[in-house]
């Protein structure tokens, strides 16, 4: 299975983010899975790639040309796809994925996981999705999801489709038991 991992291009201000990202990547590799990610060398993105590679895993990066030119591309990946735009990057990462997970990160991480979640709701894919909820990092997102539901903007069967997991074992269990919601239209 190829897991697309969204993660911050910064490390964050707590060591637990880096530690959890490294352990998560190592455990995915130990379970025989490959990682697809944004292709950068910095932040939690770089930690995920470096940890997976050190554990003997396959890591595929997808990065837009302007970031390669800015010298932020990871140079030691199994495979690196260079695309022209951020939109192409997101599409390629989604196409390569069998499942998605978001680690702590900033606006880019949030935007990426929410876009593929919207695609799930609209029936463009049926792939498993999760948030790696490091010490409550995604708790407010879940409160917002519950507010969307209670306000009539999410159907009941859509609420749990962006679930929290605490570690790789929880993520792999979610993937194993995954059932996508029926498409909203069509």
Layout of helices and strands, plus pairs?
Layout: E1 2-6, H1 15-30, E2 34-37, H2 43-54, E3 59-64, H3 65-69, E4 79-83, H4 86-96, E5 99-102, H5 107-121, E6 129-132, H6 139-150, H7 156-159, E7 163-165, H8 168-176
Parallel strand pairs: 1-2, 1-5, 2-3, 3-4, 5-6, 6-7
Helix pairs in contact: 1-2
Question: Could you please describe the fold and organization of this structure?
Answer:
The protein is an alpha/beta fold. It has a single domain, classed as 3-Layer(aba) Sandwich (Rossmann fold), CATH 3.40.50. The chain is built from eight helices and seven strands. The protein has helices at 15-30, 43-54, 65-69, 86-96, 107-121, 139-150, 156-159, 168-176, and strands spanning 2-6, 34-37, 59-64, 79-83, 99-102, 129-132, 163-165. The chain has a seven-stranded parallel beta sheet with strand order 4-3-2-1-5-6-7, with helices on both faces.
Can you give keywords for this protein?
seven-stranded parallel β-sheet, alpha/beta, Rossmann fold, about 190 residues, 8 helices
Largest sheet: 7 strands, parallel
Task: Give the proportion of residues in helices.
Answer: 40-55%
Q: Describe the global form.
A: globular
| Pattern of helices and strands | EHEHEHEHEHEHHEH
* CATH architecture title: 3-Layer(aba) Sandwich
Sheet/helix structural class: alpha/beta
State which percent range the strand residues make up: 15-25%
Helical element count?
8
Indicate the mean pLDDT: 96
Distance between the termini: 28 Å
Number of domains: 1
- Output the radius of gyration: 16 Å
CATH class: Alpha Beta
Strand order of the largest sheet: 4-3-2-1-5-6-7
Runs in which pLDDT lies below 50 for 5 or more consecutive residues are none
Count of DSSP strands = 7
User: CATH topology, anyone?
Assistant: Rossmann fold
